[in-house]
Amino acid sequence: MPKSHYEVLGISRNATQDQIKKAYRKLARKYHPDVSKESDAEAKMQGINVAYDTLSNEEKKAEYDFQLDHPEAFYQSGAQTGTGGFDNAHFYNQGFNQQHSNFSGFEDLFGRFGSGFGGGNYQYQQQQRQQQRSYQGEDQHASIEIDPEIAYHGSTQQITLQIPTLNAYGEPEVQRKTLQVKIPKGMKEGQHIRLSGQGQTGINGGKNGDLYIEIHYKDTARMRVEGADIYYNVNITPWEAALGQSIEISTPAGQKIQVNVPKNAKTGQQLRLKDKGIPSKVPGHLYLVLNIVYPTAHTEHEQQAYQAFSETFATFKPRNV
Amino acid sequence: MTTIHYREIISDEINPPDVIDDYYSFDLKHFADACGQSPEWVLQLLEYDILDTRPEERIHQFFGDDVSRARRAYRLQRDFDASFSAVAMMLDLIDEVQQLRKQVKHLNIKDA
C-alpha cells in the first residue's frame, strides 16, 4: 500500500500550510540527493516533492483529499479526471517501475515546479498549440542507476518512462515509453547521455525534444564508484596481511591480475591500481580496499592453531592500544 | 474536468546516445535547453560564479560537465527556495564536503 502524501511528509490531514512547509523543509534537508548520504535519498526526495507540490497548493490538496475519500472513483477506469492537477502518487507508483534497471524517472515531472499536468509547461504547450505554429518539444531529464561493471563494457538497458505531453488533438496524454538504451563504456558517475528526439513530442509538426539521462552507479557490497574511480573490496587472509604476499584478484573488468599485499596490511588499507578504474577519456583509478577475514575454528586442530597463535602473541593487547 | 489519455510506445530499436562529457561543448541556447531552463537563468549562473567564469569571448560556450552542476543548482534552488547566491555557497560547501570525504578515504593509500 503506497504511503499517502500526508504520511510521506509525516503530518496529519488537518495540518496547516505552515506545518506542511515546515515538514517539507525538514525532510528536504535530510533527503536532498545533492546533500544527503542516505542511499535511497533520490527516490525519497521525489516522493517528498510530489507530496509537497500537492499539499502546498490549496486546489490540488482539495482534489487530493477528495480522491483519498473516494478512491473507488479514481482507480476503476483507464483514464483519470481532474482539474489540471495530476495524481502524481498514482502516477509515480505505477509509472516508474523499471523493468531492467533502476530508473528514477523525471525529476522535473515530480519537481515542485515540474512540467506535469497543471504545471506551467503544460499550459505553455496548450498556448503553443492554439497558435498553430510548430514548436520543438521540451527536452526531458531523467537518471538511471546501473551496475558498476557496466562502466567497463557498456550495456544495453531497457527503460520504461512516462512523459506528459499533448496528443495530436491537443489533449493531455501520458506516453508510456519503453526504450532500449545503449549505455557506452567509460561513463563517469553523474555524467549524462543524450537520446535525440526521445523527449517531449514536438507541437504542430515541430521536432521532438531530447532525453537527457544522468548515469549513476549502484553501490554494491563489493564496490562503489566515485567519479571515474572505483573502490573495490578485497578479502585477504590474516597470513597474507601479516606476511605480505602476492595474491590473484579478479578486477571489475573481469581481468585476473596479481597484486602485492604489503607486509602488516590492515583492514581498510587501500591499494591503488593506476588507470584501472572507469575507462573514460581520462581513466580513473581502481582502489583495492583490503578486508582481513579470519577463519572460524571448527576442529580441534584449528583451535590448537589459534591457541599457538595466542601464545606467540601473548604480549599483544589490542584493547590497550 | 480534463481527461488524461494514456499511450503505450514500445521501441525495440537500440537508441545510440551522445555522451555529454567535458569535451562536448554547447552554445547558450542549447545549454539552456539541456538544463531545461531559460538562457537568462543560465547567465545568472555565470553572474553568481556557479559556473566557472569564462573569458569574454567564450562566455557563451559551455561543456558537458557544466550540465551536472547546473542541474544541481536548479534542484537546490527549486527544493530550498534558495537564491542564486545561496545556491552558489551551498554548491561550494557540498563540493568541499565531498572533497574532504574523499581525502579521508584516501588516507592510508599505497600504490600496488
Description:
The complex is a heterodimer of chains A (321) and B (112). Chain A is α+β, with helices and mostly antiparallel strands. In chain A, 29% of the residues lie in helices and 26% in strands. Chain A has helices at 5-9, 17-31, 41-55, 58-69, 88-95, 107-110, 120-130, 150-153, 238-243, 300-312, and strands at 80-82, 102-105, 140-146, 155-166, 172-183, 192-195, 211-217, 223-226, 229-236, 246-250, 256-260, 270-273, 286-292. Chain A has a four-stranded mixed β-sheet. A four-stranded mixed β-sheet of chain A has the order 8-9-13-12. Chain A is elongated, with a radius of gyration of 27 Å. Mean pLDDT of chain A is 80; it is low at 76-120. Chain B has 112 residues and is an alpha+beta fold. Chain B contains four helices and five strands, in the order E-E-E-H-H-E-H-H-E. Helix content of chain B is 51%, strand content 21%. Chain B has a single domain (25-106), classed as Multidrug-efflux Transporter Regulator, Chain: A, Domain 2 (Orthogonal Bundle). A two-stranded antiparallel sheet of chain B has the order 3-4. Strand 1 (80-82) of chain A pairs antiparallel with strand 1 of chain B, so a sheet runs across the interface.
Mean pLDDT of chain B: 83
Please state how the strands of the largest beta sheet of chain B are arranged side by side: 3-4
> Level of helix content of chain A?
25-40%
- Which two protein chains have the largest interface (Cβ within 8 Å of the partner's Cβ), and how many residues from each? A-B, 74 and 47 residues
The CATH level-2 architecture of the largest domain in chain A is identified as Sandwich
List low-confidence stretches of chain B.
none
A few lines on this structure:
The complex is a heterodimer of chains A (321) and B (112). Chain A is built from ten helices and 13 strands.
